[in-house]
Protein backbone atom coordinates (compact mmCIF):
# COMPACT_ATOMS: atom_id res chain seq x y z
CA UNK A 1 0.00 0.00 0.00
CA UNK A 2 1.45 3.36 -1.06
CA UNK A 3 -0.16 6.45 0.49
CA UNK A 4 0.78 8.73 -2.38
CA UNK A 5 -1.64 6.88 -4.65
CA UNK A 6 -4.52 8.56 -2.78
CA UNK A 7 -5.84 11.98 -3.72
CA UNK A 8 -5.37 14.63 -0.99
CA UNK A 9 -9.10 14.64 -0.26
CA UNK A 10 -9.31 10.86 0.19
CA UNK A 11 -6.11 10.82 2.26
CA UNK A 12 -7.65 13.45 4.54
CA UNK A 13 -10.81 11.35 4.84
CA UNK A 14 -8.70 8.30 5.74
CA UNK A 15 -6.78 10.20 8.43
CA UNK A 16 -10.01 11.54 9.96
CA UNK A 17 -11.59 8.10 9.84
CA UNK A 18 -8.51 6.50 11.37
CA UNK A 19 -8.65 9.01 14.23
CA UNK A 20 -12.32 8.15 14.83
CA UNK A 21 -11.56 4.41 15.00
CA UNK A 22 -8.42 4.79 17.12
CA UNK A 23 -10.25 7.07 19.54
CA UNK A 24 -12.69 4.34 20.61
CA UNK A 25 -12.02 2.62 23.92
CA UNK A 26 -14.68 -0.12 23.69
CA UNK A 27 -14.29 -3.13 21.42
CA UNK A 28 -17.88 -3.07 20.18
CA UNK A 29 -17.57 0.65 19.38
CA UNK A 30 -14.40 -0.02 17.36
CA UNK A 31 -16.22 -2.61 15.25
CA UNK A 32 -19.24 -0.36 14.56
CA UNK A 33 -17.10 2.72 13.82
CA UNK A 34 -14.85 0.77 11.45
CA UNK A 35 -17.85 -0.36 9.41
CA UNK A 36 -19.30 3.16 9.24
CA UNK A 37 -15.99 4.76 8.23
CA UNK A 38 -15.36 2.12 5.55
CA UNK A 39 -18.79 2.83 4.06
CA UNK A 40 -18.09 6.58 4.10
CA UNK A 41 -14.65 6.17 2.49
CA UNK A 42 -15.90 4.05 -0.41
CA UNK A 43 -19.51 5.12 -0.83
CA UNK A 44 -20.71 1.57 -0.21
CA UNK A 45 -24.36 1.44 0.97
CA UNK A 46 -23.88 -1.75 3.00
CA UNK A 47 -21.09 -2.84 5.30
CA UNK A 48 -20.36 -5.43 7.98
CA UNK A 49 -17.59 -6.78 10.16
CA UNK A 50 -17.56 -10.43 11.15
CA UNK A 51 -15.53 -11.63 14.14
CA UNK A 52 -13.87 -14.95 13.29
CA UNK A 53 -13.45 -17.91 15.64
CA UNK A 54 -10.51 -20.27 15.62
CA UNK A 55 -12.02 -22.46 12.89
CA UNK A 56 -12.96 -19.59 10.60
CA UNK A 57 -16.67 -19.46 11.45
CA UNK A 58 -18.28 -16.18 12.54
CA UNK A 59 -18.82 -15.77 16.29
CA UNK A 60 -20.12 -12.18 16.12
CA UNK A 61 -21.41 -9.93 13.34
CA UNK A 62 -21.85 -6.14 13.16
CA UNK A 63 -23.62 -4.68 10.12
CA UNK A 64 -24.91 -1.33 8.83
CA UNK A 65 -26.91 -0.04 5.88
CA UNK A 66 -29.98 -2.27 6.06
CA UNK A 67 -33.27 -0.91 7.39
CA UNK A 68 -34.59 -2.67 10.54
CA UNK A 69 -37.24 -4.64 8.62
CA UNK A 70 -34.71 -6.02 6.13
CA UNK A 71 -32.23 -6.83 8.88
CA UNK A 72 -34.91 -8.72 10.82
CA UNK A 73 -35.97 -10.71 7.74
CA UNK A 74 -32.36 -11.78 7.12
CA UNK A 75 -32.24 -13.39 10.55
CA UNK A 76 -28.94 -14.78 11.79
CA UNK A 77 -25.47 -13.87 10.50
CA UNK A 78 -23.89 -15.56 7.49
CA UNK A 79 -22.22 -18.88 8.15
CA UNK A 80 -18.70 -17.75 7.28
CA UNK A 81 -18.50 -19.99 4.24
CA UNK A 82 -18.18 -19.22 0.56
CA UNK A 83 -16.48 -15.94 -0.34
CA UNK A 84 -16.60 -14.77 3.27
CA UNK A 85 -14.82 -17.92 4.37
CA UNK A 86 -12.31 -17.50 1.55
CA UNK A 87 -11.04 -14.26 3.12
CA UNK A 88 -10.50 -16.04 6.45
CA UNK A 89 -8.90 -19.13 4.92
CA UNK A 90 -6.46 -17.26 2.69
CA UNK A 91 -6.08 -14.10 4.78
CA UNK A 92 -6.21 -11.80 1.78
CA UNK A 93 -8.42 -9.10 0.26
CA UNK A 94 -11.14 -10.13 -2.20
CA UNK A 95 -12.55 -7.52 -4.63
CA UNK A 96 -15.30 -8.59 -7.04
CA UNK A 97 -17.49 -6.82 -9.59
CA UNK A 98 -20.31 -9.29 -8.88
CA UNK A 99 -20.11 -11.63 -5.89
CA UNK A 100 -22.88 -13.86 -7.25
CA UNK A 101 -20.64 -14.86 -10.18
CA UNK A 102 -17.83 -16.11 -7.96
CA UNK A 103 -17.64 -19.94 -7.75
CA UNK A 104 -17.45 -19.79 -3.92
CA UNK A 105 -20.55 -17.59 -3.56
CA UNK A 106 -22.63 -19.76 -1.17
CA UNK A 107 -23.87 -19.73 2.40
CA UNK A 108 -25.74 -16.41 2.60
CA UNK A 109 -28.93 -16.27 4.74
CA UNK A 110 -32.11 -17.18 2.88
CA UNK A 111 -33.69 -13.72 2.88
CA UNK A 112 -30.48 -11.72 2.35
CA UNK A 113 -30.88 -9.22 -0.55
CA UNK A 114 -28.91 -10.02 -3.70
CA UNK A 115 -25.46 -8.42 -3.76
CA UNK A 116 -23.35 -7.20 -6.66
CA UNK A 117 -19.96 -5.48 -6.19
CA UNK A 118 -18.07 -6.80 -3.18
CA UNK A 119 -14.95 -5.86 -1.23
CA UNK A 120 -13.72 -8.01 1.67
CA UNK A 121 -10.61 -7.21 3.72
CA UNK A 122 -9.11 -9.17 6.64
CA UNK A 123 -8.72 -7.35 9.97
CA UNK A 124 -5.73 -8.43 12.03
CA UNK A 125 -5.13 -7.81 15.74
CA UNK A 126 -1.38 -8.24 15.93
CA UNK A 127 -0.34 -11.45 14.15
CA UNK A 128 -3.78 -13.06 14.51
CA UNK A 129 -6.79 -12.75 12.24
CA UNK A 130 -9.55 -11.04 14.24
CA UNK A 131 -12.25 -10.73 11.61
CA UNK A 132 -13.23 -9.61 8.12
CA UNK A 133 -14.55 -6.26 6.93
CA UNK A 134 -17.14 -6.52 4.14
CA UNK A 135 -18.54 -3.84 1.83
CA UNK A 136 -21.10 -4.40 -0.91
CA UNK A 137 -23.17 -2.85 -3.68
CA UNK A 138 -21.16 0.29 -4.45
CA UNK A 139 -22.55 1.81 -7.62
CA UNK A 140 -20.04 1.24 -10.42
CA UNK A 141 -18.05 -1.25 -8.35
CA UNK A 142 -15.05 -0.91 -6.04
CA UNK A 143 -11.79 0.50 -7.35
CA UNK A 144 -8.17 -0.30 -6.59
CA UNK A 145 -8.03 2.93 -4.58
CA UNK A 146 -11.05 1.80 -2.55
CA UNK A 147 -9.24 -1.44 -1.82
CA UNK A 148 -6.12 0.36 -0.63
CA UNK A 149 -8.13 2.74 1.57
CA UNK A 150 -10.06 -0.06 3.26
CA UNK A 151 -6.89 -2.11 3.77
CA UNK A 152 -5.33 0.90 5.52
CA UNK A 153 -8.44 1.33 7.67
CA UNK A 154 -8.46 -2.39 8.53
CA UNK A 155 -4.83 -2.14 9.64
CA UNK A 156 -5.69 0.79 11.92
CA UNK A 157 -8.74 -1.03 13.30
CA UNK A 158 -6.61 -4.08 14.05
CA UNK A 159 -4.15 -1.91 15.95
CA UNK A 160 -6.99 -0.30 17.93
CA UNK A 161 -8.42 -3.72 18.80
CA UNK A 162 -5.05 -4.96 19.97
CA UNK A 163 -4.54 -1.80 22.05
CA UNK A 164 -7.89 -2.19 23.81
CA UNK A 165 -7.11 -5.83 24.60
CA UNK A 166 -3.71 -4.94 26.03
CA UNK A 167 -5.18 -2.11 28.12
CA UNK A 168 -7.77 -4.46 29.60
CA UNK A 169 -5.09 -6.98 30.54
CA UNK A 170 -2.92 -4.29 32.18
CA UNK A 171 -5.89 -2.86 34.12
CA UNK A 172 -6.90 -6.31 35.26
CA UNK A 173 -3.39 -7.17 36.42
CA UNK A 174 -3.06 -3.88 38.29
CA UNK A 175 -6.23 -4.04 40.36
CA UNK A 176 -7.65 -7.56 40.20
CA UNK A 177 -5.94 -8.73 43.38
CA UNK A 178 -7.23 -5.81 45.52
CA UNK A 179 -10.74 -5.99 44.07
CA UNK A 180 -10.94 -9.74 44.64
CA UNK A 181 -9.68 -9.32 48.22
CA UNK A 182 -12.29 -6.65 48.99
CA UNK A 183 -15.05 -8.74 47.40
CA UNK A 184 -13.96 -11.79 49.40
CA UNK A 185 -13.89 -9.81 52.65
CA UNK A 186 -17.36 -8.40 51.99
CA UNK A 187 -18.73 -11.86 51.34
CA UNK A 188 -17.00 -13.62 54.23
CA UNK A 189 -17.61 -10.95 56.86
CA UNK A 190 -20.72 -8.90 56.09
CA UNK A 191 -22.93 -11.27 54.09
CA UNK A 192 -22.35 -14.24 56.35
CA UNK A 193 -23.06 -12.11 59.45
CA UNK A 194 -26.27 -10.77 57.91
CA UNK A 195 -27.30 -14.27 56.95
CA UNK A 196 -26.72 -15.49 60.51
CA UNK A 197 -28.79 -12.61 61.90
CA UNK A 198 -31.58 -13.42 59.45
CA UNK A 199 -31.64 -17.07 60.53
CA UNK A 200 -31.75 -16.03 64.18
CA UNK A 201 -34.66 -13.65 63.60
CA UNK A 202 -36.46 -16.31 61.62
CA UNK A 203 -36.06 -18.74 64.49
CA UNK A 204 -37.29 -16.18 67.03
CA UNK A 205 -40.34 -15.39 64.89
CA UNK A 206 -41.48 -19.01 65.15
CA UNK A 207 -41.51 -18.74 68.94
CA UNK A 208 -43.49 -15.48 69.13
CA UNK A 209 -47.20 -15.77 69.89
CA UNK A 210 -48.19 -12.15 69.19
CA UNK A 211 -49.07 -12.00 65.43
CA UNK A 212 -48.02 -8.34 65.06
CA UNK A 213 -44.58 -8.95 66.55
CA UNK A 214 -44.19 -12.11 64.47
CA UNK A 215 -45.10 -10.20 61.32
CA UNK A 216 -42.62 -7.43 62.20
CA UNK A 217 -39.84 -10.00 62.62
CA UNK A 218 -40.76 -11.65 59.32
CA UNK A 219 -40.59 -8.25 57.59
CA UNK A 220 -37.14 -7.67 59.10
CA UNK A 221 -35.99 -11.02 57.69
CA UNK A 222 -37.33 -10.09 54.24
CA UNK A 223 -35.50 -6.76 54.45
CA UNK A 224 -32.26 -8.55 55.31
CA UNK A 225 -32.75 -10.91 52.38
CA UNK A 226 -33.10 -7.94 50.02
CA UNK A 227 -29.97 -6.36 51.48
CA UNK A 228 -28.01 -9.59 51.01
CA UNK A 229 -29.19 -9.82 47.39
CA UNK A 230 -28.09 -6.22 46.72
CA UNK A 231 -24.71 -6.81 48.34
CA UNK A 232 -24.15 -9.95 46.29
CA UNK A 233 -24.83 -7.96 43.12
CA UNK A 234 -22.36 -5.30 44.27
CA UNK A 235 -19.73 -7.94 45.05
CA UNK A 236 -20.28 -9.52 41.63
CA UNK A 237 -19.70 -6.16 39.90
CA UNK A 238 -16.69 -5.47 42.12
CA UNK A 239 -15.15 -8.77 41.09
CA UNK A 240 -15.16 -7.72 37.42
CA UNK A 241 -11.88 -6.19 36.14
CA UNK A 242 -11.76 -2.43 36.64
CA UNK A 243 -12.07 -0.36 33.49
CA UNK A 244 -13.73 -3.28 31.74
CA UNK A 245 -17.33 -2.47 30.84
CA UNK A 246 -18.92 -5.90 30.78
CA UNK A 247 -21.48 -6.59 28.10
CA UNK A 248 -23.21 -9.83 27.28
CA UNK A 249 -21.85 -9.65 23.72
CA UNK A 250 -18.23 -9.36 24.84
CA UNK A 251 -18.62 -12.09 27.48
CA UNK A 252 -20.18 -14.53 25.01
CA UNK A 253 -17.73 -13.69 22.23
CA UNK A 254 -14.78 -14.65 24.42
CA UNK A 255 -16.62 -17.66 25.85
CA UNK A 256 -17.61 -19.11 22.46
CA UNK A 257 -14.17 -18.55 20.99
CA UNK A 258 -12.50 -20.31 23.92
CA UNK A 259 -14.88 -23.29 24.20
CA UNK A 260 -15.35 -23.94 20.49
CA UNK A 261 -11.66 -23.58 19.65
CA UNK A 262 -10.65 -27.25 20.15
CA UNK A 263 -13.72 -28.58 18.28
CA UNK A 264 -14.60 -28.83 14.59
CA UNK A 265 -18.07 -27.48 15.28
CA UNK A 266 -19.58 -24.33 13.84
CA UNK A 267 -21.08 -22.08 16.52
CA UNK A 268 -23.26 -19.11 15.59
CA UNK A 269 -24.50 -16.40 17.95
CA UNK A 270 -27.44 -14.14 17.07
CA UNK A 271 -28.54 -11.10 19.10
CA UNK A 272 -31.91 -9.32 18.96
CA UNK A 273 -33.76 -6.87 21.18
CA UNK A 274 -32.27 -4.62 23.86
CA UNK A 275 -29.01 -5.90 25.37
CA UNK A 276 -27.01 -2.78 26.25
CA UNK A 277 -28.36 -2.17 29.78
CA UNK A 278 -28.45 -5.65 31.29
CA UNK A 279 -27.72 -5.89 35.05
CA UNK A 280 -24.45 -7.55 35.98
CA UNK A 281 -26.19 -10.48 37.67
CA UNK A 282 -28.19 -11.22 34.51
CA UNK A 283 -25.02 -11.13 32.39
CA UNK A 284 -23.36 -13.58 34.79
CA UNK A 285 -26.32 -15.97 34.90
CA UNK A 286 -26.82 -15.85 31.12
CA UNK A 287 -23.11 -16.45 30.47
CA UNK A 288 -23.05 -19.43 32.82
CA UNK A 289 -26.18 -20.95 31.25
CA UNK A 290 -24.66 -20.61 27.78
CA UNK A 291 -21.35 -21.98 29.06
CA UNK A 292 -22.92 -25.13 30.51
CA UNK A 293 -25.20 -25.70 27.50
CA UNK A 294 -22.47 -25.10 24.92
CA UNK A 295 -19.95 -27.23 26.79
CA UNK A 296 -22.40 -30.15 27.01
CA UNK A 297 -23.24 -29.88 23.32
CA UNK A 298 -19.62 -29.65 22.19
CA UNK A 299 -18.57 -32.65 24.29
CA UNK A 300 -21.53 -34.99 23.89
CA UNK A 301 -23.84 -34.13 20.97
CA UNK A 302 -21.53 -34.93 18.02
CA UNK A 303 -23.14 -31.92 16.31
CA UNK A 304 -21.47 -30.05 13.47
CA UNK A 305 -23.51 -26.90 14.09
CA UNK A 306 -24.67 -25.14 17.27
CA UNK A 307 -26.90 -22.06 17.31
CA UNK A 308 -27.12 -19.57 20.20
CA UNK A 309 -29.92 -17.00 20.07
CA UNK A 310 -30.11 -14.15 22.60
CA UNK A 311 -33.13 -11.84 22.82
CA UNK A 312 -33.51 -8.95 25.23
CA UNK A 313 -37.14 -8.11 25.96
CA UNK A 314 -38.74 -5.48 28.17
CA UNK A 315 -38.66 -7.61 31.32
CA UNK A 316 -36.89 -10.87 30.41
CA UNK A 317 -33.79 -12.13 28.64
CA UNK A 318 -34.45 -15.19 26.46
CA UNK A 319 -31.76 -17.73 25.56
CA UNK A 320 -32.01 -20.56 23.04
CA UNK A 321 -29.13 -22.99 22.49
CA UNK A 322 -29.76 -25.69 19.89
CA UNK A 323 -27.65 -28.27 18.06
CA UNK A 324 -28.14 -30.77 15.24
CA UNK A 325 -26.47 -33.61 17.12
CA UNK A 326 -27.47 -37.11 18.16
CA UNK A 327 -29.85 -35.94 20.88
CA UNK A 328 -31.11 -38.05 23.78
CA UNK A 329 -34.29 -39.11 25.56
CA UNK A 330 -34.60 -36.89 28.67
CA UNK A 331 -36.69 -39.62 30.37
CA UNK A 332 -33.97 -42.25 29.99
CA UNK A 333 -30.76 -40.27 30.37
CA UNK A 334 -29.07 -39.92 33.76
CA UNK A 335 -29.21 -36.28 34.85
CA UNK A 336 -25.57 -35.56 35.48
CA UNK A 337 -23.98 -32.48 36.94
CA UNK A 338 -24.26 -30.44 33.72
CA UNK A 339 -28.04 -30.70 33.26
CA UNK A 340 -28.62 -30.34 36.98
CA UNK A 341 -26.50 -27.17 37.09
CA UNK A 342 -28.59 -25.66 34.29
CA UNK A 343 -31.86 -26.13 36.15
CA UNK A 344 -30.47 -25.03 39.49
CA UNK A 345 -28.91 -21.83 38.11
CA UNK A 346 -32.06 -20.86 36.23
CA UNK A 347 -34.14 -21.50 39.36
CA UNK A 348 -31.83 -19.47 41.61
CA UNK A 349 -32.06 -16.57 39.17
CA UNK A 350 -35.85 -16.69 39.29
CA UNK A 351 -35.98 -17.86 35.68
CA UNK A 352 -37.31 -20.78 33.71
CA UNK A 353 -35.63 -23.44 31.58
CA UNK A 354 -36.72 -26.28 29.31
CA UNK A 355 -34.62 -29.00 27.69
CA UNK A 356 -36.09 -30.66 24.59
CA UNK A 357 -34.28 -33.50 22.86
CA UNK A 358 -34.94 -36.62 20.85
CA UNK A 359 -32.55 -39.26 19.60
CA UNK A 360 -31.00 -38.32 16.24
CA UNK A 361 -32.80 -34.94 16.07
CA UNK A 362 -30.63 -32.75 18.29
CA UNK A 363 -31.21 -30.81 21.48
CA UNK A 364 -32.72 -27.41 22.21
CA UNK A 365 -32.38 -25.60 25.54
CA UNK A 366 -34.58 -22.58 26.19
CA UNK A 367 -34.15 -20.35 29.21
CA UNK A 368 -35.54 -17.01 30.31
CA UNK A 369 -34.18 -14.75 33.04
CA UNK A 370 -36.06 -11.87 34.68
CA UNK A 371 -34.52 -8.41 34.32
Characterization of the model:
It contains 9 helices and 10 strands. With 371 residues, the protein is of the alpha+beta class. The protein has a 5-stranded antiparallel β-sheet, sandwiched between helices. A 5-stranded mixed β-sheet has the order 6-7-8-10-9, covered by helices on one side.
Quick description:
The chain is of the alpha+beta class. It has 9 helices and 10 strands.
| Strands in their spatial order, largest beta sheet | 2-1-5-4-3
Q: What is the CATH topology assignment of the largest domain?
A: Beta-Lactamase
Largest sheet: 5 strands, antiparallel
Number of discrete domains: 3
Identify the CATH homologous superfamily of the largest domain.
Answer: GAF domain
CATH class of the largest domain: Alpha Beta
Using DSSP, what is the number of strands? 10
Shape label: elongated
The SS-based structural class is: alpha+beta
Give the low-confidence spans: none
Helix content: 40-55%
Note the beta-strand portion.
15-25%
Helix/strand order: HHEEHHEEEHHHEHEEHEE
Amino acid sequence: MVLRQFTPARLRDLVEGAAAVAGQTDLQAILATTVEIAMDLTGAPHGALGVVGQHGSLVDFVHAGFDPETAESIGGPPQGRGVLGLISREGRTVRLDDISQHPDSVGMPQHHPAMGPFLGVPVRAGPSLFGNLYLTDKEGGFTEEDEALVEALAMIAGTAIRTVRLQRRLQSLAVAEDRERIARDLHDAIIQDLFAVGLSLQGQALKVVDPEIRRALEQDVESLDRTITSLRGFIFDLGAPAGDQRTLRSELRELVTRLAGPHDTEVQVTYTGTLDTLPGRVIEDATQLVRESLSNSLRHSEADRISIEIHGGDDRLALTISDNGIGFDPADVAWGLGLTNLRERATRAGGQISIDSEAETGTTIRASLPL
